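User: I'm writing a short report section on ligand binding and want a predicted complex to refer to. Could you take this sequence and N,N,N-trimethyl-histidine and write out the structure as tokens? A short remark afterwards would be nice.
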Amino acid sequence: MARDPRSGGPAQLGSFREDVIAGLSRPQKALPPKYFYDARGSRLFEAICRLKEYYPTRAELALTRAHIGEIRRFASKAGFPAITLIEYGSGAGTKSRLMIEALRPSVYIPVDISEGALRDAAANLRRRFPGLAIRPVHGDFSRPLKIPLPQGRIRRVVYFPGSTIGNLAPDEAHAFLRTTRGQVGPQGAMLVGVDLNKDANVLHAAYNDARGVTAAFNLNLLARVNRELRGDFSLRRFRHYAFYNAPLGRIEMHLVSLVRQTVNVGDHRFSFEAGETIHTENSYKYSVDGFRAVAERAGFRGRKVWMDAKKRFSLHGMEAIEESASNGS
Ligand code: AVJ
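Assistant: Sure. The structure tokens for the complex follow:
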């Protein structure tokens, strides 16, 4: 299917090969989580979203459905007859459909790193919303994107669901929000899904599911290195490890080397001690006020926050702060 044979792809995607070599050369070996989402990884992530332990997807869908009228009112603005909706990390597109139905944008710009998911979702949405202009952008939203935006009295709304922002450390989230603030302009708005702090056992279970789907998702990163970069990782010699790092307020995912070993990636060779890890993902959890503080420093005022009944997940409705009123950076 949508295997991406390029090592790099579009310029803004950078290079898988370079990022892997650099990440495995660091004292704490690390791989960027954006590379989870090849065709197989995207399918495994969809399976994670259906797991009973993985509450975020269901909680976000439920709260979005429950508050869709208010979300619509928040997004629309007097004097702005049309909306351009930009979605970061649109993936399979279930939430996209809901948001398009609610906001009725005239232009929809889905941005995703997974080319196959982007293409399939765009095709589905074209069938469902024949009047909507859909302009997919294949790329990595962690870097500034050149997104063609219509001019005039059009309200720009960025939708960033799924708590993907949790992959970023607070200072990176701040920089990302600042770039987004520039992208939506002074009359723009943002809807961002943010997972909330909660009981560590609930968090732990969500990233250590009984059926091992999260483990397969994590290990697929090594399989992808083997497939695309001539790697020789033995998947039986690494184990999935995820825990809640309470002082830092984040779930960390790692791959633990079970033995002392060396691994080749193309012409590069890496050695592992028994027990040494590759850090593959952070997933930061916020309080409502904690997230608002980060957003405020980046030029967004929190106007609304919606939560599911158990207060596990939040959707923040934020508006751009006029430039003169904000100067944190
Ligand atoms: C897509 C980044 C929101 O952090 O919960 C799910 C990815 N990793 N299970 C998350 C993920 C392991 C997910 N995000």
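A remark for your report: Residues 48, 56, 162-164, 166-167, 207, 214, 281, 283 surround N,N,N-trimethyl-histidine (CB under 6 Å). The two ends are 42 Å apart (CA to CA).
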